[in-house]
Write a structure and sequence with these properties.
This protein is of the alpha/beta class and 157 residues long. The strands form two sheets. Strands 5-4-3-7-6 form a five-stranded mixed sheet. The chain has a two-stranded parallel ribbon with strand order 1-2. A hairpin with a 5-residue loop joins strand 3 and strand 4. It is elongated, with a radius of gyration of 22 Å. The two termini are 26 Å apart.
Length: 157
């Protein structure tokens, strides 16, 4: 099964993967080699720390490769703007009661980062917005109860 991912999300993972393979792997290999030269491996803290770090780096490499292998990369800038909310769009919504506006980009689960206003496509707000259009009002179940939002603008950034 393929999972949606923005072009930016895929590029960020590729940068991290390159760093892990070209910088971290050689550093850890060197650290292991230097620790081996210190002698007895059973009580060699440097060796065990380097091996543990190596395991974490290799696990992250496998994780990233798996995520990229299962990704359906979507470049929202190449999709015609229709005013409809779809994966990858940036949506400006206004709370109907308070007129408070907020802007979110709808991204894949791995890319979600609320501080950067990137919400997962599986989040309650995103699920309420997907398929709707500018001017529509949606109702979202929040921890504080039901909230109505008007879709002010849909952008393909």
């Amino acid at each position: 099964m393929k999972y949606p991912m923005t072009k930016e999300g895929a590029e960020a993972l590729e940068v991290e993967l390159k760093h892990l393979k070209s910088v971290m792997r050689p550093q850890i290999s060197k650290a292991i080699a230097e620790a081996r030269e210190l002698g007895d491996l059973k009580e060699n803290a440097e060796y065990h720390a380097a091996r543990e770090q190596q395991g974490m780096v290799e696990a992250r490499i496998r994780d990233i490769e798996g995520r990229l292998g299962n990704a359906q990369i979507i470049d929202i800038t190449t999709i015609a703007h229709t005013g409809k909310v779809i994966f990858g769009t940036t949506v400006t919504i206004a709370n109907v009661d308070t007129d408070e506006e907020v802007v979110y980009q709808i991204v894949g689960e791995d890319e979600a980062e609320i501080k950067k206003r990137k919400i997962s496509v599986t989040s309650p707000i995103a699920r309420a917005l997907i398929g709707k259009e500018e001017g529509d009002v949606v109702t979202v179940q929040t921890p504080g109860g039901l909230v109505e939002y008007e879709i002010v603008e849909v952008s393909h950034l």
